[in-house]
């Protein structure tokens, strides 16, 4: 892609890019330091069932917000739902501290349009050949791109969300939702234990550790799931499926499946492909809170299988 074309898909404003870059660094550094403090305190105060429950529950809720909300609903419209569920998913996704919903969606749609080609915001395959090229590509796709502060043109990639007044308001309050995601485990930890150390432990494990782990798992989709894994479908890119990340990523790591069928609400296309986000969508569908759930047919999947798979 020519430089002139790339300039149209990004916002070239040095001041804004500097601000975004600094916010990205802070968003990463604070949870990272909080994680170090949490593991350091293990030697003195240990960890109780309460901290474990806060970590797991807040992680599950915010990752569902990212995968079911930011990804499958807002980015790809793989199902339909009502306004309260849309708002809830947007808020939960925002609590993950991975950017506001419009920012996230614009980047992701751009990634799909230019997957592993110039213009992809976080491909690991555009950084040279050999070991150093692969290492540089892995670092860039995992975290490096996030620190550059590059701003995808939302008017081009997320115009529908910019025109949505409800989601626009949720997006404007993004930092409020991040702070709320930190406040909830802090308050619960303090109230349940009746101590300040309980509140601190809630903040550390349900807040900072949870955010840090979520960042690493989502980043692994950009890096590991474009480098290592299985490619059953001809998706015209380097996306892969990764079994080991499936539960932690709530189904996002069935990435080759997703790139082959981006409009599918189901990423785990076989019964053995664990996909918690699909379970959530199916529950919403059962409760009539989701409808028009898109799933590829067997003939569609067969048509996209690689020839070597068909021959085998």
Task: Provide an overview of this structure.
This protein is mainly α and 312 residues long. It has one domain (3-311). It is built from 15 helices and 4 strands. The protein has helices at residues 3-9, 14-41, 49-75, 83-95, 101-113, 130-147, 154-157, 159-162, 165-172, 174-193, 196-222, 255-260, 276-286, 298-304, 307-311; strands at 10-11, 80-81, 151-152, 290-291. The strands form 2 sheets. The chain has a two-stranded antiparallel ribbon with strand order 1-3. Strands 2-4 form a two-stranded antiparallel ribbon. Helix 2 packs across helix 11 (196-222). The model has no long low-confidence stretch (mean pLDDT 93).
- Poorly predicted runs are none
Mean pLDDT: 93
Q: How many β-strand runs?
A: 4
> What spatial order of strands do you see in the largest sheet?
1-3
Q: Work out the strand percent.
A: under 5%
Spell the H/E element sequence: HEHHEHHHEHHHHHHHEHH
Q: Give a quick account of the main beta sheet: strands, pairing sense, barrel closure.
A: 2 strands, antiparallel
Write down the overall geometry. Answer: globular
Distance between the termini: 36 Å
C-alpha Rg, in Å?
A: 20 Å
Broad structural category: mainly alpha
**What's the helical proportion of residues?**
55-70%
What is the count of DSSP helices, taking H or I runs of 4+ residues?
Answer: 15
- Structurally, the number of domains stands at 1
């Amino acid at each position: 892609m020519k430089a002139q074309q790339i300039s149209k898909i990004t916002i070239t404003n040095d001041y804004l890019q500097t601000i975004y870059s600094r916010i990205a660094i802070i968003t990463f550094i604070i949870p990272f330091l909080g994680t170090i403090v949490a593991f350091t305190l293990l030697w003195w105060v240990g960890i109780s069932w309460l901290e474990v429950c806060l970590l797991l529950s807040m992680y599950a809720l915010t990752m569902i917000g990212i995968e079911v909300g930011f990804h499958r609903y807002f980015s790809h419209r793989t199902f339909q739902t009502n306004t309260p569920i849309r708002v809830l998913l947007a808020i939960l996704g925002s609590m993950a501290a991975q950017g506001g919903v419009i920012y996230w969606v614009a980047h992701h749609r751009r990634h799909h349009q230019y997957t592993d080609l110039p213009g992809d915001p976080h491909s690991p395959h555009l950084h040279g050949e050999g070991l150093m090229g692969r290492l540089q590509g892995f670092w860039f796709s995992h975290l490096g791109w996030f620190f550059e502060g590059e701003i995808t043109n939302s008017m081009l990639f997320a115009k529908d969300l910019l025109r949505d007044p409800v989601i626009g308001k949720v997006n404007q309050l993004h930092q409020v939702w991040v702070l709320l995601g930190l406040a909830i485990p802090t308050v619960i930890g303090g109230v349940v234990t009746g101590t300040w150390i309980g509140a601190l432990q809630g903040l550390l494990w349900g807040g900072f550790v949870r955010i840090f782990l979520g960042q690493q798992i989502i980043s692994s989709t950009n890096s590991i799931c474009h480098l290592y894994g299985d490619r059953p479908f001809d998706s015209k890119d380097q996306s892969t499926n990764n079994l080991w990340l499936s539960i932690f990523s709530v189904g996002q790591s069935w990435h080759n499946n997703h790139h082959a069928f981006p409009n599918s609400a189901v990423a785990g296309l076989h019964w053995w492909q664990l996909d918690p986000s699909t379970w959530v969508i199916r529950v919403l569908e059962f409760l009539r809170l989701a409808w028009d759930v898109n799933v590829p047919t067997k003939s569609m999947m067969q048509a996209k299988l690689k020839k070597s798979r068909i021959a085998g």
